[in-house]
Amino acid sequence: MKNAYDVAVIGAGPAGLIAAGRAAMLGAKVVLLEKMEKPARKLRITGKGRCNITSMKLLEDYLKEISPEPRFLRQAFGAFFNQDIIDLLEQNGVATKTERGERVFPVSEKAWDVAEALVNWAKKNGVEIINHSQVEGFIIENNVVNGVKVINSKSGIAESINCKCVIIATGGKSYPATGSTGDGYKFAEIAGHKIVSLRPSLVGIETKQVYKSAIGIDLRNISATLWIDGKKSASEFGEANFTDYGLDGPIILRLSRFIVDSKIAGKKVEISIDLKPALDHQKLESRLQRDIIELGKKDVKTLLKLLLPSLLIDVFIDILKISPLKPVNQLNGAEKKSLINLLKDFRFDVTGYRGWNEAIITAGGISIKEINPKTMESKIVKNLYFAGEVIDVDGNTGGYNLQIAFSTGWLAGDSSAKQALESI
Ligand SMILES: Cc1cc2nc3c(=O)[nH]c(=O)nc-3n(C[C@H](O)[C@H](O)[C@H](O)COP(=O)(O)OP(=O)(O)OC[C@H]3O[C@@H](n4cnc5c(N)ncnc54)[C@H](O)[C@@H]3O)c2cc1C
């Protein structure tokens, strides 16, 4: 055994960096072990490289965006919330701004700046960060953890590191190329923890209907409604995209949180897109009637140009089976009705969802029933703590997942340091 530390943190993502920095701030001797060549690879690509750091919504609204049990996070959010991460970043050179929907971003619009600020803050507090350091397991004696087994991925040298407390902050299973390969679940399982089934979440949806000519369209100001076993289950308003496998984009990702579980349960899942959510059937009918009068003998394609993005026109003509050359004043009642219905209820049968390489987060994880919400300590192994996505809590898009990582990281760092320093 070498290098006795108070706290060893496994994984230098946002949760691990904050946990390590907080523990060191309290005077603990802290090592942060990261298996990749540099810390926070995933953080550096968040928010399409812009990093949606957090949300400025109020706590009660926040909790509505978190599953499966938002109350588990009350103490973590109480210890370190949205304004705290903003202050920490601002004090470390990253100015922030709040955009539409209360979403907070760095003014520089560079996720990289957020990652570097957290790394520098942790180092400034005295954290020793060791890259290329892959943790392979723990040393647990009489249900108390007191060390970690590490292998250096560059030199191949294996060693054991002695410590009083361990924080698992290894993240989920999505985007494995960033280093998040689900190692923490295995460690926790070996330590006796229950792992709630892991599912990709905030993920693109595969559909039976794929319209090749529409691939790449960004639909804005539309609404999407989820139908599960014929029952209306959820609705979202905003943006969606057509892809070569089905549907993607912000509102589809938000609906995916329900879709994945429904598909796993073998339910029939459909998505209905309303391309004209601002107009009800009657208003849309009047609008169509006005357009038809104005266009007179002009053709259906010209009418569709007024109603749809250009890449969707041929798709609509195919589905409606109306000649694009037909004069609009010759459209019969049934044809007008089917056009209105398609604009209001463009249906997709959901066949599946994308995998770990594309999912933004992992749903499921280490059961919260076996973690103390006041400290993030394991209820099974003493001095073992958890932080971040490895825990069975996940948030919607909008900055909630990073805030979960920051808040649980802070609380785990805080309580592990106090525990380690008390035991001196
Ligand atoms: C493309 C994309 C965009 C996203 N955008 C946003 C966004 O804008 N806003 C938002 O709130 N959320 C976003 N998220 C989600 C967010 O990035 C994650 O929820 C967050 O990074 C989780 O933090 P974490 O510290 O728990 O885990 P991670 O960030 O996954 O970090 C875990 C770290 O542990 C290391 N590690 C794993 N196993 C070991 C081991 N055995 N030994 C040593 N080290 C190990 C990994 O290499 C990694 O560095 C996005 C995710 C993706 C994939």
Uncertain residue segments: none
| Main sheet attributes: strand count, strand direction, barrel closure | 7 strands, mixed
At the fold tier of CATH, the topology name of the largest domain is: FAD/NAD(P)-binding domain
Query: What hetero molecules are bound to the protein chains?
Result: flavin-adenine dinucleotide
Category from helices, strands and their pairing:
alpha+beta
Count of runs of 4 or more consecutive helical residues: 12
- Rg, nearest Å: 25 Å
What portion of residues is helical? 25-40%
Total beta strand runs: 20
Q: Based on the structure given, which CATH architecture of the largest domain is correct?
A: 3-Layer(bba) Sandwich
Can you give a write-up of this model?
- The chain is α+β, with helices and mostly antiparallel strands and 424 residues long.
- The chain has 2 domains: 2-199 and 362-422, 3-Layer(bba) Sandwich (FAD/NAD(P)-binding domain), CATH 3.50.50; 204-354, no CATH class.
- 33% of the residues lie in helices and 28% in strands.
- It has helices spanning 14-25, 59-63, 74-79, 82-91, 111-124, 183-190, 250-264, 281-295, 300-307, 310-320, 333-344, 400-422; strands spanning 2-10, 30-33, 54-55, 66-67, 96-99, 103-106, 128-130, 133-141, 144-152, 158-168, 195-201, 205-207, 218-228, 231-242, 246-248, 269-274, 346-353, 361-366, 384-386, 394-395.
- Strands 1, 2, 7, 8, 9, 10 and 19 form a 7-stranded mixed β-sheet that branches.
- α1 packs parallel to α5 (111-124), α1 (14-25) packs parallel to α12 (400-422) and α8 crosses α11 (333-344).
- The chain is elongated and about 90 Å long.
- The mean pLDDT is 97.
- Bound molecules: flavin-adenine dinucleotide.
- Residues 10-16, 33-36, 41-43, 45-47, 51-52, 134-135, 169-171, 174-175, 179-180, 183, 360-361, 388-389, 399-402, 405 line the site of flavin-adenine dinucleotide.
